[in-house]
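Q: what sequence does this backbone want?
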C-alpha cells in the first residue's frame, strides 16, 4: 500500500479535526490527494488539527446531523473516497451524554451514508467504528468479524449499533450493480500516537501527568489488557481497504485492525514505557469505587486482514511507544507538529515497505 495511490483523487474525511482524522487528512494531503474535511470544531487546546495548520486541506466545520450542510459539502466536493471517522469516541463521556453519543455515532453515520447516495463518482467508503463494537464477554481469544455486535456502555453499544446500521444501508442501497459505491467498516481500538489530547484517554493523561508540576500519572485500571497500536497502523489499513474496495465488491464487509498478540499489554506497561521514554513522571493507582464499568480484556483476531488485505502490523509495542513519546517530547521542545508528523509518516512508510 502506498498513500500515493490517492494522489489527485478527491477524498472526504469526516472527523478531520480529531486525533485520527487529523493524522489521516495530513497523510493523504501529503500524498497528493485533494482532501476535504467535515467535522465539528476541535474540542481541546492544544489539538493536532490546529497545530498542523493544513492550508492545502479544505476544512468545513459542521455537524453530521445537519443534513443541509452535509448535502452541500458532498455536492461541492464530489468525493471519490470517503473515510468516516467523525464520532463521539469517549467511553466515560458516553455515560454522561448517551443521547448525544447515539445521535452522533449511529444517526450521524446513517445521515452520511444516505447523503452519499447522491455522490455520482463515489467509489469507496470506509466507516471507522471500534473494537468495542463487539459483544464483549472478556474471552481470551480474539473477536472475529463474524462475532455478534453489542456493548455494555452507551459508547460501545453505539458502535455495535453503527455496525448494524452500516450493514443495513449497504445491503439496502449499495449492493446492486446500479450503484458503484462499496462500503466497509473498520474496527480498531486503543490507538495511541502523538497529538492526542482527548479527555479520559490513557496516553494524553499520562503525558499531561508527566509534564505537570507534580509529575503524577493516575491510573484507574492498571491491569486492563488492551490491543495498543500506533495511529498510523489502522490508518494504513483504512487506505488499503479503500483501494481494495474500488477494485472488488468482495471487500465490502467488516474488518479488524489490531496489533500482534505479543504486543497486547496491560495499561501499567504502557504508562511505564511512556514515562521511561519521556524521562519523567511517577505512577499512582486510584480506582474509585463508583467508577463506570470498563472491560478488562478485549482482543481482535486480524487474520482476515492478513490473509485478504495483506495487512499486518508494522510496529512493535516498543516502537509504538517510542514514536508516541518522541512526538510529545518533540512538541514539548517546540518542534512544529507538521515536522513531527511528516517525519513519523516517512519512517512508518519506510518500515512498511521493508515489511513487503
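A:
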Amino acid at each position: 500500500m502506498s498513500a500515493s495511490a490517492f494522489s489527485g483523487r478527491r477524498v472526504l474525511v469526516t472527523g478531520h479535526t480529531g486525533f485520527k482524522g487529523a493524522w489521516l487528512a495530513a497523510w493523504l494531503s501529503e500524498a497528493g490527494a485533494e482532501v476535504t474535511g467535515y467535522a465539528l470544531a476541535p474540542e481541546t487546546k492544544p489539538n493536532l488539527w490546529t497545530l498542523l495548520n493544513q492550508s492545502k486541506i479544505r476544512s468545513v466545520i459542521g455537524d453530521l446531523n445537519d443534513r443541509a450542510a452535509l448535502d452541500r459539502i458532498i455536492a461541492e466536493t464530489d468525493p471519490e473516497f470517503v473515510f468516516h471517522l467523525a464520532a463521539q469516541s469517549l467511553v466515560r463521556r458516553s455515560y454522561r451524554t448517551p443521547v448525544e453519543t447515539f445521535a452522533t455515532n449511529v444517526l450521524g453515520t446513517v445521515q452520511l451514508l444516505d447523503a452519499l447516495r447522491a455522490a455520482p463518482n463515489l467509489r469507496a467508503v470506509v466507516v471507522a467504528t471500534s473494537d468495542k463494537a463487539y459483544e464483549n464477554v472478556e474471552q481470551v481469544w480474539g473477536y472475529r468479524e463474524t462475532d455478534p455486535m453489542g456493548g455494555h456502555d452507551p459508547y460501545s453499544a453505539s458502535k455495535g449499533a453503527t455496525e448494524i446500521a452500516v450493514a443495513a444501508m449497504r445491503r439496502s442501497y449499495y449492493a446492486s450493480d446500479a450503484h458503484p459505491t462499496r462500503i466497509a467498516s473498520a474496527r480498531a481500538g486503543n490507538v495511541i500516537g502523538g497529538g492526542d489530547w482527548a479527555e479520559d484517554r490513557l496516553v494524553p493523561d499520562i503525558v499531561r501527568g508527566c509534564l505537570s508540576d507534580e509529575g503524577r500519572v493516575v491510573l484507574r485500571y492498571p491491569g486492563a489488557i488492551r490491543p495498543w497500536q500506533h495511529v498510523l497502523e489502522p490508518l494504513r489499513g483504512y487506505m488499503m481497504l479503500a483501494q481494495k474496495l474500488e477494485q472488488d465488491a468482495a471487500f465490502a464487509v467488516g474488518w479488524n485492525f489490531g496489533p500482534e498478540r505479543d504486543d497486547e499489554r496491560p495499561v501499567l506497561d504502557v504508562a511505564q514505557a511512556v514515562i521511561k521514554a519521556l524521562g519523567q513522571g511517577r505512577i499512582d493507582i486510584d480506582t474509585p469505587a463508583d467508577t463506570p464499568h470498563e472491560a478488562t480484556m478485549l482482543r481482535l483476531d486480524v487474520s482476515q486482514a492478513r490473509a485478504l488485505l495483506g495487512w499486518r502490523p508494522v510496529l512493535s509495542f516498543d516502537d509504538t511507544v517510542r514514536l508516541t513519546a518522541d512526538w510529545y517530547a518533540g512538541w514539548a521542545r517546540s518542534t512544529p507538529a507538521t515536522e513531527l508528523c511528516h517525519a513519523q509518516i516517512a519512517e512508518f512508510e519506510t518500515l512498511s515497505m521493508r515489511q513487503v
